[in-house]
Specification:
Helices cover 34% and strands 45% of the residues. It is of the alpha+beta class and 150 residues long.
Length: 150
């Protein structure tokens, strides 16, 4: 059974559960996920493709703010590009919710970057879904969306 369809279902259909009572998060488990996310973002910023290849699930996918759906091979190729740089700054409003071996992290971040000489950035809301596979956390899905300008 593939974990990505389950994770996507939890994210898209289970969002009302996030606003209602859910499992009480264990501080240690939450910190483990936040630390994993921090290393994941650091690897993206530093183009550590070997580490990203290791932590992305085989059926990983990302939906970027431009509406592109990227699978693992395409995401790794995108990370290798020298004409694309970005930084994720000031993560805040971070929430982690657990559903068995699936963790969903949501947060508000400031993004600053450049793609083929064009600047991009602003305030974004991210959803990242992690699943424990063979005892290790894997990234199974990531989605970023720009927040409306005030």
């Amino acid at each position: 059974m593939k974990i990505v369809p389950i994770a996507a279902l939890v994210v898209f259909l289970g969002m009302p559960l996030l606003a209602q009572g859910q499992m009480k998060n264990n501080d240690k488990a939450v910190q483990e996920i936040v630390d994993f996310r921090n290393r994941y973002i650091e690897a993206e910023e530093n183009k550590d493709v070997a580490y990203l290849d290791k932590i992305f699930a085989d059926d990983f996918f990302a939906l970027n703010p431009q509406g592109q759906l990227l699978d693992k091979p395409h995401m790794l190729e995108n990370m290798k590009r020298t004409d694309r740089v970005f930084k994720v700054l000031n993560p805040r409003e971070t929430q982690v919710h657990f559903y068995g071996d699936v963790a969903i992290l949501t947060e508000h971040v400031t993004v600053d970057g450049e793609d083929k000489g064009r600047h991009f950035g602003g305030e974004f809301r991210f959803v990242r879904v992690f699943a424990k596979q063979n005892g290790n956390w894997k990234v199974v899905m990531a989605q970023g969306a720009p927040l409306p300008q005030p």
